[in-house]
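Form 7-S
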Amino acid sequence: MDMRTAVTLGSDRLLASGQLTGRRVGLVCNPASLNANWQHVSDHVTQMPGVTLAALFGPQHGFHSVVQDNMVETSHARHRRYDVPVYSLYSDTREPTADMLDGLDVLVIDLQDVGTRVYTYIYTMAHCLRAASHHDLPVIVCDRPNPIGGAVIEGPMLTPGFESFVGQFPIPLRHGMTIGELAALFNTLLSRPAPLDVIPMTGWSRAMYHDETGLPWVLPSPNLPTLDSAVVYPGGVLFEGTSLSEGRGTTRPFELLGAPGVDAEAITDSLNSRQLGGVRFRPVEFEPTFQKHAGTTCGGCQLHVTDRVSFAPVKAAVAVMHAFRTHAASAFVWREPPYEYEHVHRPIDILSGSETLRQQIDSNQNAEDIAASWRPGEDEFLTTRKPFLLYE
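Output:
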C-alpha cells in the first residue's frame, strides 16, 4: 500500500460527495483539521461550488490553537480571509448558542482527537450535539484516526458524580475509539439525540498508529507536539492532578515528569527495576519555561517508549506516581481545585474518573494490582462500544 494515500479522511469523502451543496455550513475545526494534501478543511469548504461557509467554531486553545493552559478562555473573532464569525467554544460558553447557530443548515465537525477520555475536543463535540438537538440542526462528524490506535483500551472508567469538562460519559481513560465512533455513542446517551451523520474514513484499521496512516501530523493542541507525546498522554495527563511537572513548558510534555529536589537516579532505578512492558525510564533534569515549577530545575524521568504495542501508558503513569511517592514523598502532592471549571472534586479525581485511583495510590497499592482493578470496567466497555465501531 502507498502510505501517502493509506487513509482517506471523512472530511475529504464528505466534500467529494456534494452533500453540502446549497447549504450554509458551520464548521468546528482547528489547525489540525488538515487533509493529506495539507489543505485545511475551511479552505476546502470555501472552494466548493454552491457551498457557503457561514461560521467557524474553535475548541479549547482557540481556533488557531495558540492558548497554552487550561481555563484560559479565548475570544470570539472574525476570520480575516473569509469574513465570517469565529466563535470560541471555550469562552463564556462551551456550547453553541442559538444566535451562533442561527441561519446554519448544517454543523460540520472536523476535529482531531487523541484517544484519551480527558481530551476536551470530544466534549466540545458533545456540546455541539446537545445544542443542535434543540434546534433540529443536522450535525455531520467527519471521522479522523485515533492517533494511538483503536485496538487497545486501558484505565479506570468515569463513574457517576465525577462528570466534568474533562469527562462527561462513562468511558475508560484510553478509549480506543475514533471521534466519529464516539459521536455515535455520545448521541445515544443524550436526553435528546441530534440529527447525526458520521462520515467514516476509508483505509483505516484499528491497529494503525498515526504514522501509519500517510496523513501529516499537526499538533492538535499546543502541548501535544508529536505522536510520541500522544502515545504517553493517556497516563501522562494524570500528572496534571499532582504537584509534579508533567513537562509543560518543555519540548517533551507528558514525557518528562519531575519536581525540584528530586533524586532522578533513585526514581528511574526504581521504575526500571519493575520491567514494565515497552518503556524505559531515563534520569533527567529539566527546567520548565512556564506552568508548574517554571524557571526551576526539576529532577525526574523521561519515558522512552520502546514498543508502543506492549506499552501501557496508564499503568506506567501509576508506577511513576508510586515511585515518586516512595522516593520523593515531599515532592508528590495531590493538587487542589479548581481545575477545568471543577471547584469541588480534586483534579486527580476528575482526571481518573473517581476517588479510587487516588485512594489506591495513597494506600500504597502497586501498579499491577491497580491495573487489575480496571479490568471489569474495561471488559464492560468493550461490549458497550461494539455497536458503534466502524472499522475492523
